Amino acid sequence: MEQSFSEKPLPLLLTASMSTEDLMLVPKPVKIAPDDISDWEALLVPLTNQLPYITPLESLSNRPLTFTISDQIYTLVYFHCEEYTSGCALIEDVNDPKQSPPEFLPQNGVPKSTFFEAIGSRGLPQMFEVFERLSCKAAKALGTKYYRLGSLCAIDSSLVDATLSMEWADYTAKTNKAKVHLCFDINFGIPRKIILTEGKGAERPVADMQLEKGQTGVMDRGYQDHQRFDAWQAEGKYFVCRIRQNTQKTVVRELPIPPNSNIIFFAQVYLGDQQHRTQNTFRLVGFKVGRKLFWVVTNRTDLTALEIAQIYRLRWEIEKFFAWWKRHLNVYHLIARSPYGLMMQLLAGLITYLLLIIYFYWRYLEYPSLFRLRQLRRTIRIERALRSIPSILLSKRKSIFLFMERRGTWGKLNIIVAIF
Q: Is residue 406 part of a domain?
């Protein structure tokens, strides 16, 4: 019998594979672009360097592709870098006859029908490859933050509002939602794996696919599953997972509680009642943050109670990523309604985020922030406006840019052009 949608997630799993040596790299900021190129070009340098190595996208007919996979990726990255309200707004702006298209985008314009057809039907394997390559590039540029705590991956999901016509995104009788399951590498601050399901897609089976041998999955109480805890123990997978307060605990051995700390409980325990008890014992930590009590279980025996509590607090990194990613990159502003097209958009949003990480770390030794993003967007608009200046004024390009940047506005451009 054919599996239901919730039992069989969409075949849209992406794994950015990094070796153990990659995970142990120390931060080594490398100059990725010369100083005399535009910020838009500098942002795209890592992407441009990787595109020649991905699998070519072949045309299904005798006619060559007019909208190549490179055009497709560059256009989607531009959509997320700017603040467009829809795909149509993007096409209208790129095809604006009053100004030149952005660099690397098709200079003859982007046909509307071709753009939306491409998103919904082709290029997904190539997007997977680009994301994997950029993940490795970002890891090499950034280095690990928490070397002594091992490989930490926060696992969580987020809902995407879907239209009523997206029948595959079943959620409730009156609403449709899709669910994005993400594995976020805490050591580097970058996304590693993504799975797309319907809104009611189960989270625990997805965690099996996201967590790898030797990694430590950091999860909230929605992932509590005693049978899976035992299975992960047998498979060599580690976890730090919050559990419900009413979970029955059978203490096998009490462990020393560090003095002058917020730790109130530390012991080796069995979880569950007699019928649903775990086969293995795990370490359980209880700690308070303000008036709130947290119970966190793990199968790692090399960690102290304070380190276990610290690792669970690091789970907040994926929450901050989801909030920043959704709010500032328009990732959940739908430009496609099929599972294929939505996954394309999500991957493009992840690729854009990785490009921003590499760019901002190279330029400012910082992770992405709203201030830096707005600064970059303003610069990209200025550079695009300068490209629309007649060739006779190109020699004045640098002085115009400095004048406009110093005043924080590009409305002076018309006055300067009139003077020249």
A: no
Question: Is residue 180 included in any domain, yes or no?
Answer: yes
| C-alpha pair distances (Å), 109 with each of 63, 120, 208 | 19, 19, 44
CA geometry: angle at 352 spanning 75 and 203, to 5°?
115
Q: What's the CA gap between 243 and 228, in Å, rounded?
A: 13
Q: Is residue 46 part of a domain?
A: yes
Distance, in Å, from the CA atom of 21 to the CA atom of 30, rounded to the nearest integer, reads 18
pLDDT in tens, 220-247: 999 999 999 999 999 999 999 999 999 9
Continuous segment of H or E residues that includes residue 160? strand 152-162
Percentage of the chain lying above the pLDDT 90 cut: 62
Q: Which CATH number does the domain housing residue 173 bear?
A: 3.90.350.10
| 68 and 187, same domain (yes or no) | no
Which pTM does this prediction carry? 0.86
Q: Which of 22-31, 155-164, 214-223 has the lowest mean pLDDT?
A: 22-31
**Pairwise CA distance, residues 121 & 115, whole Å:** 10
